[in-house]
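In the design runs reported in the main text, the only information available to the sequence generator was the tokenized backbone. The following block is the verbatim input for one such run; it is reproduced so that readers can re-run the procedure and compare outputs position by position.
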């Protein structure tokens, strides 16, 4: 095991030396997707970041049990009666579990395309209704919850008198109370911050189960508490997700677990930061939502160019997981050039003529890579170190540096370990990424020729290029933002 690993803990708001509860075993829980719609880029960034963490912990010889749940019980973030899966099912004229299956399959496909490893366990909320009911009953028995007309609420204000309810965020409890908006069922609650552990279902609610309190469905927060406890125990090592989950979902998970068994669930809380597009938060209201597959196909007018999954994963790794990631066409183009430069240099290694002596110390280069990852999984610094290694390779190829045969072998191993295995950048064994990259370059040339022809009013040539491309399955579309292309 290399050196010491330090993680930034949201709970303590500082970096701490990572020591698992039961070495060499590590328990890690990450809040998974809600499967009523396509996975968005923020999800992809979060799951890809934790995929790298999973890969690195395994590289350090930890036995990692990585649990990532699927939320398929019908609701989403709030305690309302809106059944988003049933709503989507009605729109698409499908059964609710067909919607669940459709978007679960889609989620898994996107994870595969971006080279994310499957988790050790992927439990579903609907598969753990009994565990959620049992946890709710125990919290009731312990005196931290109350039942009103078939809905069970967690008593936040009672809990806050004994424990620090906002420990994860450091927010002011009184300010939260004053700013809490009116919600459905607010008149049933004893306190404005109280949240539902179990929700009474209205007759039209399709996804509902029998319970000691009547037919209903679980609250959002109890799902993760029940599943993490079942598979990782009452205490485990790492709990992760997007930073948007910290103020409510993860805060309530901590409260639930303490109310259930007297223990906070995780020792380390890790959160990925938000993702923006051209400096603005992505939202449907702003009309600036881009889906992961649109970044590959180039079919979204806001990013009118396609990029390979390897380039997109590399782009995400260039920013530390706790920093905001801003997606712009210029940044993606720069990432593509950087990715190509790294890969090209790595491919030169086997052809470099060995020398009897060396100009570098490979062990020092390796240590810098480990130092980057041991500093809270700093992939941005790691990539900077890989670029330095790339410069050395180019110089060695040009005869400016000398490398021994052993150095060349060790550099190949270092690149394979950190670039491909730990960062998870897909290898080009099947040549798909290389072909895509070459196609993009060819299309850039053709579109430039077509644009020049249109400027010169040579419409015969410009139309001919468009028609011939369409004949081989490439569609080009002229828009106010420029010309876009996509594959049929």
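Verbatim output:
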């Amino acid at each position: 095991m290399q050196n010491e690993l330090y993680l930034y803990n949201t709970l303590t708001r500082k970096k701490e030396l990572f020591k698992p509860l039961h070495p060499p075993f590590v328990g890690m829980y990450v809040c998974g997707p809600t499967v009523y719609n396509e996975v968005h880029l923020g999800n992809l960034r979060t799951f890809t970041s934790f995929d790298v963490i999973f890969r690195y912990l395994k590289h350090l010889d930890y036995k990692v049990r990585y649990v990532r749940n699927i939320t398929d019980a019908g609701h989403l973030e709030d305690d309302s009666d809106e059944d988003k899966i049933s709503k989507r099912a009605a729109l698409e004229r499908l059964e609710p579990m067909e919607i669940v299956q459709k978007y679960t399959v889609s989620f898994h496909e996107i994870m595969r395309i971006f080279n994310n490893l499957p988790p050790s366990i992927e439990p579903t909320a609907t598969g753990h209704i009994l565990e959620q009911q049992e946890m709710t009953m125990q919290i009731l028995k312990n005196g931290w919850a109350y039942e009103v007309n078939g809905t069970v609420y967690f008593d936040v204000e009672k809990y806050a008198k004994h424990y620090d309810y906002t420990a994860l965020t450091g927010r002011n409890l009184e300010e939260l109370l004053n700013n809490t908006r009116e919600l459905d069922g607010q008149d049933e609650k004893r306190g404005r911050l109280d949240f539902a552990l179990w929700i009474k279902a209205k007759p039209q609610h399709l996804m509902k189960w029998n319970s000691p309190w009547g037919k209903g469905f679980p609250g959002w927060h109890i799902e993760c508490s029940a599943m993490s406890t079942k598979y990782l125990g009452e205490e485990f090592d790492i709990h992760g997700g997007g930073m948007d989950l910290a103020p409510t979902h993860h805060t309530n998970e901590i409260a639930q677990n303490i109310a259930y068994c007297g223990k906070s669930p995780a020792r380390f809380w890790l959160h990925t930061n938000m993702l923006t597009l051209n400096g603005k938060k992505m939202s449907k209201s702003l009309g600036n939502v881009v889906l992961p597959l649109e970044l590959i196909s180039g079919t979204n007018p806001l990013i009118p160019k396609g990029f390979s999954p390897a380039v997109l994963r590399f782009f995400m790794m260039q920013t530390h997981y706790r920093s905001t990631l801003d997606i712009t066409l210029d940044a993606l183009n720069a990432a593509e050039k950087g990715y190509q430069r790294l890969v090209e240099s790595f491919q030169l290694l086997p052809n470099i003529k060995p020398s009897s002596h060396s100009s570098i110390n490979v062990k020092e280069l390796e240590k810098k890579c480990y130092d980057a990852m041991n500093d809270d999984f700093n992939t941005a610094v790691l990539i900077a170190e890989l670029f330095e290694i790339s410069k050395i390779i180019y110089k060695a190829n040009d005869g400016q540096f000398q490398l021994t045969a052993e150095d060349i072998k060790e550099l190949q191993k270092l690149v394979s370990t950190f670039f491909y295995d730990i960062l998870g950048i897909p290898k080009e064994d099947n040549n798909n990424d290389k072909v895509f990259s070459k196609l993009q370059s060819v299309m850039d040339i053709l579109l430039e020729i077509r644009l020049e022809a249109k400027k010169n009013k040579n419409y015969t040539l410009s139309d001919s290029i468009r028609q011939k491309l369409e004949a081989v399955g490439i569609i080009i579309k002229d828009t106010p933002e420029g010309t876009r292309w996509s594959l049929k």
